[in-house]
Amino acid sequence: MTDQLGIVTSASLERGVEVRLDSPVSVEDMVVGRYVTIEGQKRRFFGMITDVSLGVTDERLKISPPDIADPFIKEVLTGTSTFGAIHVTPMLTIGGDAESILEGPQPVKTIPAHFSAVNLATESDMELVFGKEDKERFHIGNPLDMETRLCLNLEEFVKRSNGIFGKSGTGKTFLTRILLIGMLQKSKAVNLIFDMHSEYGWAGTHEGGPPVKGLKQLFADRVAVFTLDEESSRRRKVSTDFTVRIGYDEITPEDISILRSTLNLTELAVEAAYQLRKSLGKSWLRQVLELSDEEIEGQLKDASIHESTFQSLKRGLGTIGRLGFVVPQTPEDTVKRILDYLARGINVVLEFGRYREISAYLLVANMLSRRIYARYQQQMEEAVAADNDAIKPRPLVITIEEAHKFLNPEVSGKTIFGTIAREMRKYNVSLLVIDQRPSGIDEEVMSQMGTKITCLLDNERDIDSVLAGVSGKSELKTVLARLAPKQQALIFGHAVPMPVAFQPREYGSAQSYKDFISAGQSSTAEQVEKDIEELWE
Amino acid sequence: MEPGRRPIARGKDEATEEAIYQSSPQLTKLLRSEFTAVVVGHKDGDSLRHYLPPNPARIHSFVYLCAPEEVRKFSQSFGFLNILINTSLPVPADELIAAALRQMSQAYEDSRAFLVAAGKELAALLSGQYDRLKSILGRLQ
Q1: Residue in A131, A191, A163 with CA at minimum distance from that of residue A494
Q2: Domain count, chain B
Q3: Which DSSP category does A68 fall into?
Q4: Under an 8 A CB cutoff, do B137 and A60 touch?
Q5: CA end-to-end distance (rounded Å), chain B
Q6: Exposed, middle or buried, A399 (CB in 10 Å: 0-12/13-18/19+)?
Q7: Touching check for A9 and chain B: CB below 8 Å?
Q8: In whole angstroms, what is the distance from residue A490 CA to residue A504 CA?
Q9: For residue range A455-467, what is the model confidence (pLDDT) as tens digits?
Q10: Domain co-membership, B69 together with B120
Q11: How confident is the model at residue A1 (pLDDT cuts 50, 70, 90)?
Q12: Cβ B119–A75 below 8 Å, yes or no?
């Protein structure tokens, strides 16, 4: 046991536990976000420090403070008349009897008795709660101020849609990379990553340092890099597996409706797109872009589309047509190619190269995902009909950045991502949402996310939307608002038994790459050993 | 000295205080010092109790100063402080407490640690009376 911190002086399930610190414990050693255990009479509680305060027994101490120049007076008063107190939010409990120890930590439903001893959580406590690194658990970092390895059960993690949030520059990308590696190694899921800033595939930027290796450099046989912009990839000396081209006839009016605000189209113009599609058929976009105004005029009259509406639509479509990767005819079906890779268990990173504008990203991500999702849905339904788990498609995790553009209340009903987030894993597809402005995401979508990981946020509305519906929200808020601006994050939700503030593991040094690569191998090595053992039994 | 009689200053012409007693030897019999003691604990068999005994001390009992060893033993617990704080005496109780603790601290090698511990006990007992605590603490050193 570590040294005792203090004792419980008052508690309520709703408001949390007040702990008065013992006099040798310095209040300055207590940091928000740390874990403590409380030894109750019948059970142990796990909780997180959510507030630290100073108390005095007599109000007059505040009015006429003692002579602090005198060390004697100071020493006497510390811990007696003046004392430190911490506020602990209990999260989990383990009962004392054998049965409940087997059950493991349970959500807290009661509070510790008066004067229960409070200790800092030890490594073994943390291991009890979060588990050890094993076949399913992946070491993602260390809890704040602790050496313990925080492990995340990725098999559980990929069962839901998840979110990574944080202001820009807080380390979202690094965190995502770590999680992607984890998923690649420890779960059966494959990833499709829409990599807006070309950060994940081959190499990523690192503020104030040399570029860091991307997924493909570390796991060449498990990752394929697709690109929209060959030139940029070639300049960056990235070996790409496929160049994505999108044909005119692959773009549907649904895609246009999502781009409405980015292309600055009116509602009527979007409506016109639907009508044109109806009357012109699959090649409507090519016709709109290539035919002259006179040729199309007849069509307009039939569909009763106003001239100015059409011009507005045409201007918007022109923006799409000018994107380099949009071509009249595609040599090969991109979606099929992606699905091939995914079916073989190879993760696909789609780089956008110079097409960093949001309209390109929205268009491509939405279009490809929609069609991939449709295929998954189909395969899944076939598998269910045949009652055969073996032909179920591999679980797929789609990673999108700037998620609020896809999932804001206005378009989340229309984009495929809204549907995926809502329908959860029914069709073996889930999302990994990366965003810096979570308040822009539809509440309904936010509420369906399983695990949320958030780096520092300082906008009140963003914080509220990330923490919506979490128990102990106001306490977590203090923790969240006090995360360091870099490389600290708070994780909570489905895949972790209780919220925890942590420091993501190192990414970027030679040693860290070695660790990442070996993390997967060691588990297979262990597995082999186990198999051999079993063989001899 | 008889009650009601006030002493007269002597020794105006003497060189030292001893000389006064030499020239008026009756003084040693006439003048006497009295002291009042507050009972703060007692010994019950082998164990020390930091509260009042069931019976007061008998008249004509002999009074001894405690040996440092006894002081150390007794001051292992500060239960007696409560009696001192609440007692009513012709002298200010706070002065008495401070003096008593100072005396006791001399029985310890690390007198400061003892005083700090005593101070903390006082702080707990006088939690609502900060002014009083402050004045005692000021007299502890």
Answers
A1: A163
A2: 2
A3: T
A4: no
A5: 36
A6: buried
A7: no
A8: 10
A9: 888 788 888 888 8
A10: yes
A11: very low
A12: yes
